[in-house]
Each structure stands twice: as structure tokens, then as C-alpha cells.
Write a structure and sequence with these properties.
The protein is an all-alpha fold. It has five helices and no strands. It is globular.
Length: 169
């Protein structure tokens, strides 16, 4: 959901803050491209730190990226958004799959993944609509981006509170 909202509204947001349309398109492509190295990097980190800590790091980077985007007024700040959000998003991909397998095993993996992807599909629809509505009401994407950054922070808290289930006897 977060990625859908950001990719759908990032260009108009960047244009609103004075970024040229071609540069905004390039930034969008760069942010998506930055997720690619995030995948093996975070998979490697997860093998050393553990999946839980690594997923918390990825969520934190996405939230930080959104906060940087909200306050960005220069190309250097926008570049920080691209790095934090792109790498963080890329990092959630392999680590989320891995933690589902570690926590729930092969028997429940498909069911848990099904529920997760159902929730993701719902947020992929809801978050961009919310961002558009928020912009229509306030004339700014700041509220929507800050709200979703807050949801990422909430995900960090839930991840820190999560305990690995005990295997069945």
C-alpha cells in the first residue's frame, strides 16, 4: 500500500514543490531502481542480524524516507528519500517472506501469505485514494505521507512486540 501511494503521488508532489516534471519522473524511476539492491542487501543483513531486527530496519528506512520526502526542498534531500525509501522498500520484500516462513513454517506459509497479500491489495487501493482525497481537502500530500509514515512506525512497534510462535508439539 505504501509503495502504491508513493509511486502514484510522488510525481505530482515533487512538481508541487518545484521539481521539473522530467526530473520528477527520473526520481520516481530511481526510487524504484533503488529497491533492487535493497533486496540482496537486506537478505544478507537478515542472515546476520535476524529477520525481525532487519525488518524493523527496513520499516524504519521507509518511514524515514517518507519524513525526508515531506520536508525535502532540495535535490540532495530528495536523493536521501530515494535511498532510504527505495532500499527500505526493497529490503522488506525478501525479509517479509523469510519471516513468514520462520514464524509459521511450511504448513501455514501459504495461508499467511494469502492473508498478507489480501491486506496488501486492500491497502494498494486505499492508500492512493486516501492520498488523493487528502490532497483535494488540504492542497498538500504532507498529511497523507505523514500518516503512512506513522503507520510504518506502528509496524515497527508491532514487529518489536511480535514473538515467534512455538512449534506445535
Amino acid at each position: 500500500g505504501t509503495l502504491a501511494m508513493v509511486t502514484m503521488h510522488q510525481m505530482p508532489y515533487l512538481e508541487d514543490i518545484g521539481v521539473d516534471v522530467m526530473a520528477a519522473a527520473g526520481i520516481l524511476g530511481l526510487m524504484a531502481t533503488m529497491s533492487l539492491p535493497g533486496r540482496p542487501i537486506f537478505a544478507w543483513i537478515a542472515d546476520r542480524w535476524g529477520e525481525k531486527k532487519t525488518l524493523v530496519l527496513a520499516f524504519a528506512m521507509k518511514a524515514l524516507g517518507l519524513l525526508v520526502l515531506i520536508s525535502a526542498r532540495s535535490l540532495a534531500q530528495i536523493t536521501l528519500f530515494v535511498i532510504f525509501f527505495g532500499l527500505g522498500y526493497g529490503g522488506t520484500m525478501p525479509v517479509s517472506s523469510s519471516i513468514r516462513a520462520s514464524y509459521f513454517g511450511r504448513k501455514s506459509y501459504a495461508t499467511i501469505t494469502g492473508y498478507t497479500t489480501l491486506f496488501t491489495a486492500i491497502t494498494n487501493i486505499a492508500y492512493p485514494i486516501f492520498a488523493g482525497w487528502s490532497y483535494d481537502i488540504s492542497g498538500s500530500y504532507t498529511t497523507a505521507f505523514a500518516f503512512v509514515a506513522g503507520l510504518q512506525a506502528l509496524a515497527i512497534i508491532f514487529m518489536l512486540l511480535a514473538k515467534k510462535p512455538k512449534p506445535p508439539a
